[in-house]
Amino acid sequence: MIFDPGNLTLTFWQLIQPVDTWLITHINQNWGNKFLDTVLPYMRETFFWIPLYLFLLLFVTMNFKVKGWWWLAGAIITAALADLLSSQVIKQTVMRTRPCQDMEVAPLLRFFISYCPRSSSFTSSHATSHFAQAMFFFLTLRPVIGKIAWFFFFWAAIIGYTQIYVGVHYPFDVFCGSLLGCGIGYMTGKMYNKQIGPLSLVK
């Protein structure tokens, strides 16, 4: 018997596809409503979250001075690593057709954005990037803001869910992107706390 890695990969995606198709059609069709149809497409856009980014920037740099600027550098590095690994490495290696480009799946979905990216669907770069930032924010800001830090994961989950809801990613793409992002954010967050030191409002 000859072992064929290519055939093993094909079989894996064949197993995943029915589950992913069932989930995305239910999320997109059966679990939606007019409110979500209107709000969620905006929540995946960067400009929607600009107030949050500005608040974090001002809060950290004004309260922690030099440590705050190092924190900003850490957040940028985290985002860059997430984009590099998801968009430039994994997507260029695992070429999976997006649901909005799939001739069998697309007719089953409603679409809320005017374009469908032609890049690979796996992994979701939105999920990777935002969960990486969420984990970094959580690890570095939790000593300061306490349980509110869990909000960052809720924020990332909304964006990941939206990618499924609007039909540009399968749930498995978002799930794996989330795990990858958490791993990246955990690494950069731990490194920041070790090298720069935990943030604290106590003088």
Structure description:
It is a single chain. With 203 residues, the protein is mainly α. It contains 6 helices and no strands. The chain has helices at 5-30, 34-43, 50-93, 125-145, 151-165, 171-195. α4 runs antiparallel to α5 and α5 runs antiparallel to α6 (171-195). The longest helix has 44 residues, at 50-93. The N and C termini lie far apart (68 Å). The model has no long low-confidence stretch (mean pLDDT 90).
Span from first to last CA?
A: 68 Å
Number of helices: 6
What's the rounded overall pLDDT mean?
A: 90
Helix content: 55-70%
Structural class: mainly alpha
Give the beta-strand count. Answer: 0
Question: How much strand?
Answer: under 5%
N-to-C SSE series?
A: HHHHHH
C-alpha Rg (nearest Å): 19 Å
Biggest pleated sheet: none
Shape field? elongated
- pLDDT < 50 runs, ≥5 residues: none
Keywords:
203 residues, mainly alpha, elongated
Q: What's the topology here?
A:
Blueprint (H helix, E strand, L loop, with lengths): L4 H26 L3 H10 L6 H44 L31 H21 L5 H15 L5 H25 L8
Helix pairs in contact: 3-4, 3-6, 4-5, 4-6, 5-6
